[in-house]
Design goal:
CATH topology of the largest domain: Zincin-like
Bound molecules: zinc ion
Helix content: 40-55%
Largest sheet: 4 strands, mixed
CATH architecture of the largest domain: 2-Layer Sandwich
Strand content: 25-35%
Structural class: alpha/beta
Strand order of the largest sheet: 1-2-4-3
Radius of gyration: 22 Å
Number of strands: 11
Shape: flat
Distance between the termini: 30 Å
Order of helices and strands: EEEEHHEEEEHEEEHHH
Length: 241
């Protein structure tokens, strides 16, 4: 259920989820879902609110951070000089008149996008984003397939199929049948982090859970996987375009 609580001068909306299986109370702050409190069933609203007040500083800190991120994303304009991410770095966007071929190239430390001049500024702005996103998806597909090819040999596994697509809130997944899905936005993260997600999903072809045996497999391929995973946890939400 949706509810709200006053924390000092803040009126904080939150979702309250009750579960009969749960024994403890927990709160999460999610970039899109906001504040979610999980409690056992038959938990009183008064106790939920007392718990939220106790955690107020932590909750407000995280909310403020996500709000800053959203503001930064809104500020990203697909225009000359915009700093666009790719494999953990940022490159400025540059335009050239290119006979209408609308191609994207990454060369000499900048994105070069060829666009025709048609006098329609608004349409032009929309196309920049569209062309760049197409380019990112293409790069992501090629790169992720290449990395899957590299690591699957090391692990001695063969996925049923590999797809790179738009996924909400997931970087990768592995089905029980062995089909792997990856989020194209991994191509915005540093290559080490992309490799970590590839190895993680490939290891699920051997162990389909997150048991110690699973993590030992991941560690066998990437001894520093913990740092890569931490990077993704701390920075992943900032990758969205
Ligand atoms: Zn997993």
């Amino acid at each position: 259920m949706e509810a709200q609580v006053t924390l000092g001068e803040h009126l904080l909306p939150y979702q309250w989820k009750q579960s009969p299986r749960r024994r403890t109370v927990a709160v999460t702050v999610h970039p899109e879902n906001g504040v979610v409190v999980h409690t056992p069933s038959r938990y009183s609203r008064r106790r939920v609110e007392a718990f939220l007040r106790e955690k107020a500083a932590w909750i407000l800190k995280h909310r403020a951070r996500f709000e800053q991120e959203r503001a930064r994303r809104r500020a990203l304009r697909w225009e000359l000089g915009a700093l666009l991410p790719f494999l953990g770095a940022r490159y400025p966007l540059h335009f050239v008149l290119d006979g209408g071929r609308e191609q994207v190239r990454l060369e000499q430390g900048r994105f070069v996008l060829g666009l025709p001049l048609d006098g329609d500024g608004a349409a032009f702005g929309g196309r920049v984003r569209e062309r760049m996103l197409d380019w990112y998806r293409e790069q992501a597909t090629a790169l992720i397939l290449e990395r899957v090819g590299h690591f699957k040999g090391l692990l001695g596994v063969t996925p049923l199929r590999v797809r790179v697509k738009q996924q909400k809130r997931r970087w990768g997944s592995c089905s029980a049948k062995g089909a792997l899905n990856f989020n194209w936005q991994l191509v915005l993260a540093p290559p080490d982090v992309l490799d970590y997600v590839v190895v993680h999903e490939l290891c699920h072809l051997i162990v389909l859970n997150h048991s110690p045996r699973f993590w030992a497999l991941v560690e066998g391929v990437l001894p520093d996987y913990r740092e890569r995973r931490r990077w993704l946890r701390e920075n992943g939400h900032r990758l969205a375009l």
